Amino acid sequence: MTVGLFIPCYIDQFYPNAAIATLKLLQKLGVKVSYPLQQTCCGQPMANSGFEHLTTGCNELFIDNFAAFDYIVSPSGSCVLHIKDHLHSDGQPEKAIGVRKKVYELTEFLTDILKVEKLTARFPHKVGVHQSCHGQRGLMMSQMTELVAAPFSKPMQLLNMVKDLELVELSRPDECCGFGGTFCVAEEAVSVKMGKDRVADHINHGAQYITAADMSCLMHMEGILRRQNSEVKVLHIAEILNAEEI
Questions:
Q1: For residue 43, what pLDDT band results from cuts at 50, 70 and 90?
Q2: Cβ atoms within 10 Å, residue 100
Q3: Is the separation of the CB atoms in 22 and 54 below 8 Å?
Q4: CB of 100 within 8 A of CB of 80?
Q5: Quick one: three-class SS letters along the chain?
Q6: Which residues contact 224 (CB under 8 A, 6 or more apart)?
Q7: Is the pLDDT confidence value at 185 over 80?
Q8: Burial readout 208-235 (b: 16 or more C-beta within 10 A, e: otherwise)
Q9: What is the pLDDT of residue 245?
């Protein structure tokens, strides 16, 4: 099995440790990983802003970079959902469909494909889990609380394998943080208020860290935490799952 590692542009530029942790974690689990050096933005920001017709170059480059791999894995639910739902090509339609079928967010790859049952990580802290909207409602990585159905969460399933980690229970476990990509720019006041509410839920339940499968949501909440001079930190789930046992 050979996996193509897809690293979103904001992680590459602002949170490289999340990318490094993803690579190391996959390698620990025996996966052969390759990182295409020519990869760029997947085109999601343009598509979300109403300019999907301008993403042709992004689509073609993504296909060229990743079509040959057995699987494509990324530490970003929102970017993976964009590829799954929107990647297309007039010149390479079959390859585009093939890519859409084999791209996975990290935690769903670990649970659904590798079927991981044990991790060697240790993280002795209280952790709150943010269930990002794209991952939860688009990729079905966790159950939506408004449904009368059995609860599940692929991120939490993995975090429960981490030694000495204590998951905190939230009052509103699947509430949006307000980031929403370009929404936080177009509707700044609403976005900030939603973010403050989301952060407060974690703080009120004693979380020392907030984690998620989407670094973009964590980035939004991190900005609020810093402005509040809070000691609570954000950390991508890959960094916790890859944490060395001491």
A1: confident
A2: 16
A3: no
A4: no
A5: CEEEECCCHHHHHHCHHHHHHHHHHHHHCCCEEECCCCCCCCCHHHHHCCCHHHCHHHHHHHHHHHCCCCEEEECEHHHHHHHHHHCCCCCCHHHHHHHHHCEEEHHHHHHHHCCCCCCCCECCCEEEECCCHHHHHHCCCECCCCCCCCCCEHHHHHHCCCECCEECCCCCCCCCCCCCCCHHHHCHHHHHHHHHHHHHHHHHCCCCEEEECEHHHHHHHHHHHHHCCCCCEEEEHHHHHCCCCC
A6: 192, 195, 196, 199
A7: no
A8: bbbbbbbbbbbbbbbbbbeeeeeebebb
A9: 63
| Residue 102 tokens, joined | 């084999």
What would the two tokens of residue 148 be? 């009368």
Mean pLDDT score across all residues of the chain: 94
Q: pTM of this prediction? A: 0.94
Looking at residue 42, its amino acid is C
